């Protein structure tokens, strides 16, 4: 199972991005042979893919495009509901887009497996981490978060819930 998290400012600029794979085993009903979708440029060990660094860079651009293209759908769905957690607001190939909106900051998660409760809990945890990071006097509002401790904590939350 693969995931891509983007935290987007009210001005639709990325504040934080993270691409990661789940530590939990994929459910048996999954049609994908690896942890990333079949159209992914990541190598599945067959040697046919590009070198890992080039593949990761190409994958990142696709994920950024999908996440930011889904922002319109996220805003559309959020207008019709009072809920902060928006599950499955958009789809692109094998990716499903879920979102969490709090104080005009959008947390967008691309995922290829269904885990609504885990994703909801993950969003709640990441929101709490974001609030703590934004309260840091050395963090400027609506600027990218470059704190390695923040990334470590987000990865730990992903490992726990996803």
From TrEMBL:
A Pfam entry, by short name: Sedlin_N
Top-rank taxon, per record: Eukaryota
InterPro entries recorded: Longin-like_dom_sf (IPR011012), Sedlin (IPR006722)
CDD domains named in the record: TRAPPC2_sedlin
SUPFAM superfamilies in the record: SNARE-like
Protein name per Swiss-Prot or TrEMBL: TRAPP subunit
Species of origin: Vanrija albida
Gene this chain is encoded by: TRS20
């Amino acid at each position: 199972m693969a995931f891509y998290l983007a935290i987007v400012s009210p001005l639709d600029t990325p504040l934080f991005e993270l691409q990661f794979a789940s530590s939990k085993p994929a459910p048996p009903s999954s049609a994908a042979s690896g942890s990333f979708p079949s159209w992914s440029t990541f190598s599945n060990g067959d040697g046919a893919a590009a070198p890992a660094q080039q593949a990761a860079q190409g994958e990142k651009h696709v994920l950024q495009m999908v996440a930011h293209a889904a922002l319109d759908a996220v805003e559309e769905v959020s207008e019709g509901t009072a809920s902060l957690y928006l599950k499955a607001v958009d789809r692109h190939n094998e990716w499903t887009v879920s979102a969490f909106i709090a104080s005009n900051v959008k947390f967008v998660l691309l995922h290829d497996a269904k885990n609504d409760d885990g994703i909801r809990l993950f969003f709640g945890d990441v929101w709490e981490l974001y609030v703590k990071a934004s309260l840091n006097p050395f963090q400027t509002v609506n600027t990218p978060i470059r704190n390695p401790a923040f990334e470590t904590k987000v990865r730990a939350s992903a490992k726990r819930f996803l």
